[in-house]
Amino acid sequence: MSRENDIKLIKKNGFKSFKPDRHSFIDENGQRWLQCKFCCEYQKVDEGTGYITCGSCVVKIDLIEYPNTIKKQKVSTGRPAGWHFMNEFVDKDGNVFHKGKEQPDLKGTLPPTKVKPRKKKKKLSADEKLHKDIKNWKKRLKAKRGKK
Ligand SMILES: [Zn+2]
């Protein structure tokens, strides 16, 4: 079912229309799974959790209650362009990603990656351009001398 359909259903009937039967089971690794109370997707849970709301339902609820804030959040994730190509990226919440893949085990163990603000390209005036050229030329000269 699509999120839009879910939201329509929730708006029409309330969350109660979602299947009330919730089951939990423990897999072969001893991990307990519980169904989301709204959509019944199985989610990993810690011992003692009575009911859960899965991530996608949290988003749905947010979309219903705060339809405008989500949109704004989507625009600014705080992640730089191309973050999922980075070998390692830590977002502001401490989520660690290796090449865009979340590493839950490493969450909170690393400082957030500093996002450099995008450099604004400034148009150089003729004077500044000349100045830059001279600077570069001097640099090259220096490098040349250093090699000898
Ligand atoms: Zn759910």
List the defining traits of the structure above.
three-stranded antiparallel β-sheet; 148 residues; single chain; elongated; alpha+beta; 4 helices; binds zinc ion
General description of the model:
Helix content is 36%, strand content 12%. With 148 residues, it is α+β, with helices and mostly antiparallel strands. Among the domains are: 3-69, no CATH class; 80-114, no CATH class. The strands form two sheets. It has a three-stranded antiparallel beta sheet, with no helix packed on it. Strands 4-5-6 form a three-stranded antiparallel beta sheet, with no helix packed on it. Helix 1 packs across helix 2 and helix 2 packs across helix 3 (67-75). It is elongated, with a radius of gyration of 26 Å. The chain starts with a helix and ends with a helix. It binds zinc ion. Zinc ion binds at residues 36, 38-39, 41, 54, 56-57.
Number of strands: 6
Strand order of the largest sheet: 1-2-3
Query: What structural class do you assign from the helix and strand content?
Result: alpha+beta
Termini separation comes to: 70 Å
Shape: elongated
H/E element order: HEEEHHEEEH
Mean pLDDT: 80
Radius of gyration: 26 Å
Strand content: 5-15%
Task: Work out the helix count.
Answer: 4
Instruction: List segments where confidence is low: pLDDT < 50 over at least 5 consecutive residues.
Output: none
- Helix content range of the residues, please? 25-40%
Question: Any ligands, ions or cofactors bound here, and which?
Answer: zinc ion
Largest sheet: 3 strands, antiparallel
- Assembly level: single chain
